[in-house]
Design brief:
The protein is mainly β. The protein is 3% helix and 50% strand. A hairpin with an 8-residue loop joins strand 4 and strand 5.
Length: 283
């Protein structure tokens, strides 16, 4: 059992499955798309040499019957699948709930069939399927210690919290492929040159900048959407130019990834969260 929804560029949604107006006959394209393998042949040598490879665009084809009243239901469907316009598809089954952005390439209708049918083709430039539920992991140097019941004595005061330096956080990528992430840093005090460090791959992102209490930094390493910005007193500034030499747009490998966050000074004042969207090749 599966569910298929479409969302147009205005945020309006329609469910194509479990809908009396339509009967979905087939949905093709939610399996892994083809890979493009670039090879070079050498004279006098059997076989070829591998150069590079990449995943091709994903093409999703939806075939459905349009139920009575066919004319009204067909015209209603045009609102969600406008040729050359963006459309977002949601696919849910017993194992995965995913979405993908695409563009309607064609909407072909068999008007004169006994049962009117439509074949809709959607081309998705970014081929991976995105998990509907982002994963958010928190990393903080402040450990809560206050518990109930409690008793306060003059010679033995109750600790409300303590600051611990050098904490590491595991961020698990449950997807099929490597993916970027969004790192959010919030400063509770003065911080100099914060650094996000992957302890497994030794990759890092370091920002050459001074943060004050209340400043907020967001780092996005997602392909096609990379940025580094700071919000300070309501003013947004671009910090890409302040990345230090050697900084990389860290990608999360499938499985466990371990991170630490520090700074040249004031690292105890950093509150950090990691947000990732698992990517899948197919459902």
């Amino acid at each position: 059992m599966y569910t298929l929804l479409a969302e147009n560029q205005y945020g309006q949604q329609i469910e194509l499955t479990h809908n009396d107006d339509y009967s979905v006959k087939s949905v093709l394209g939610f399996d892994p798309p083809d890979a493009i393998i670039n090879l070079t042949r050498n004279a006098g040598q059997d076989g070829s040499e591998y150069n590079s490879s990449y995943m091709d665009n994903r093409t999703i084809t939806i075939t459905l019957a349009i139920n009575y009243p066919a004319e009204r239901n067909r015209i209603d469907l045009y609102r969600y699948f406008k040729e050359k316009q963006p459309v977002k598809l949601y696919y849910r089954n017993g194992s995965r709930n995913v979405w993908i952005n695409g563009y309607t390439q064609s909407f072909q209708v068999a008007f004169f069939d006994k049962k009117e049918t439509a074949q809709i083709t959607v081309v998705c430039p970014r081929p991976y399927l995105n998990d509907e539920d982002p994963v958010v992991e928190e990393l903080t140097n402040i450990i809560s210690l206050f518990e109930f019941p409690f008793e306060i004595e003059e010679e033995d005061p109750v600790e409300m919290s303590k600051i611990v330096i050098g904490i590491e956080k595991s961020v698990f990528n449950a997807g099929d492929v490597s993916t970027g992430m969004i790192v959010k840093l919030r400063s509770l005090g003065s911080v100099t040159n914060p650094i996000v460090y992957n302890t497994i791959t030794n990759e890092f992102i370091k920002i050459q900048d001074e943060l004050s209490a209340g400043d907020y930094v967001e780092i996005c390493t997602i392909q096609g959407s990379k940025y580094v910005k700071k919000i300070s007193s309501g003013v947004v500034s671009n910090l890409i130019g302040k990345l230090t030499a050697g900084s990389t747009w860290i990608q999360l490998l499938p499985g466990d990834n371990v991170f630490s966050v520090s700074a040249d000074a004031g690292e105890a004042y950093l509150l950090t969260s990691f947000e990732i969207i698992n990517l899948y090749e197919g459902v």
